[in-house]
Amino acid sequence: MSLFDKFAPLAAAYNRLESTKSNPFNVTFDRVLSPTEAKIGNRLILLLGTNNYLGLTYDSAVIAKSVEAIENFGTGTTGSRIANGSYDGHNQLERGLADFYGRKHAMVFSTGYQANVGILSTLAGKNDHLLLDADCHASIFFGSRLGHAQVTRFRHNDPNDLANRLRRLADTPGDKVIVLEGIYSMLGDTAPLREFAEVKREWGAYLVVDEAHSLGVLGETGRGLAEAEDVETDVDFVVGTFSKSLGGVGGFCVSDIDDFNILRVASRPYMFTASLPPGVIAGVMEALHQVRTRPALRHRLIDNARRFYFGLSELGFSLGPEPSPVVSALMPDPETAFAFWSQLLEAGLYTNVSLPPATPKGLALLRSSVSAAHTPAQIDYALALFADVGRAMNVIPLARVRKAV
Ligand SMILES: Cc1ncc(COP(=O)(O)O)c(C=O)c1O
């Protein structure tokens, strides 16, 4: 018996993939030219799988702020904020996030993953209950399991199922904390947040919404789904990430709850890890400023997302339930997903393969993420490649003609 025997089935599947030369888990970009283009070797690749929703990774002001911070504060903090001190940028970013969301408190974590792990593992104690939407991200499930609360899953986007589960827990002591996402990362669908907010109110629960994919995307000012649905006062904790619309890395949680700051000395994933480097903090601050001052980015993103979603739909692809910057085409099986992905990459288009357990209902998905930085011509080029590969592989009908969007 070896320690690694338990990985044998996974290793066999992975090795089979390696031998086909179409391993999506092993892509290296040799150069990145812009938010939408990169090079693999000498080949120019159109990027359609990067979560760079607003295209801010190459924004000149974001880069300038980041470089300036590196020059003034160095490349890293080399320690945690609790043990080694905060930099002015950490405090400024937290004030900026609190102000953006109109909340009293904000806490920054070193990744979005850690924000969920740090908040959920700490917030809900031994006698409390976490109620998670079944399609929540791995960081939400992992963070919930890491704490001592009772964890219950309810059916995806089903407020009635949540209400039934809360009813069953009504006589059980402890607080009830509901966790949802704004835009779900695999199928790009949004939560019916108004109905969920009603259930939350009825049962006196707390509500956490992870706006990782909806920050900068939804809402009048880009605060996410809760803003778009006008239920922000029902959301007790907003969690989010800097790694998508804000083009950096890191995560956060904002809240109006008075005692919130005690989490700084209670949450191990906040306390026992190095804080974000100054260059990242400064770049994220500038990106947040751009979310606030350039609504046109959001509008362009939505236009591009609709163009791509309805374009694929016209071609005959089966997609997630609604247009959003996450556009996933359903593939009949993982092998087809890998082959489709590989042929697109051969043709110069980078997308993502998403498989169980990351996907809901055991689906095999070819997932794309659209950016405000894509031109309509790039979107149309991607659609043409999807059409060619889809027809050649019999994933879509041969003769369907795409109407103009
Ligand atoms: C809903 C959700 N929450 C959290 C995360 C983790 O964020 P990060 O990758 O910035 O750590 C992700 C990542 O994809 C996500 O989709």
Bound molecules: pyridoxal-5'-phosphate
Trace the largest sheet across and list its strands: 4-10-9-8-7-5-6
How much of the sequence is in beta strands?
15-25%
Considering DSSP H and I runs of 4 or more, what fraction of the residues is helical?
A: 25-40%
Shape: globular
Distance between the termini: 59 Å
- Output the number of helix runs: 14
Mean residue pLDDT:
96
The biggest beta sheet reads: 7 strands, mixed
- What's the total count of β strands? 14
Q: Indicate the structural class.
A: alpha/beta
Rg: 22 Å
Low-confidence runs (pLDDT<50, min 5 residues)? none
Structure description:
The chain has helices at residues 8-19, 60-73, 81-84, 88-101, 112-123, 138-146, 159-168, 193-203, 225-228, 268-271, 278-293, 295-315, 334-346, 376-392, and strands at residues 31-34, 37-40, 43-47, 105-109, 129-133, 150-154, 176-181, 206-210, 237-241, 251-255, 326-331, 349-350, 352-354, 364-369. It is globular and about 60 Å long. It is built from 14 helices and 14 strands. The protein is an alpha/beta fold. The longest helix has 21 residues, at 295-315. Strands 4-10-9-8-7-5-6 form a 7-stranded mixed β-sheet, sandwiched between helices. Strands 1-2-3-12 form a 4-stranded mixed β-sheet.
Keywords:
14 strands, 40% helix, binds pyridoxal-5'-phosphate, alpha/beta, four-stranded mixed beta sheet, globular, 405 residues
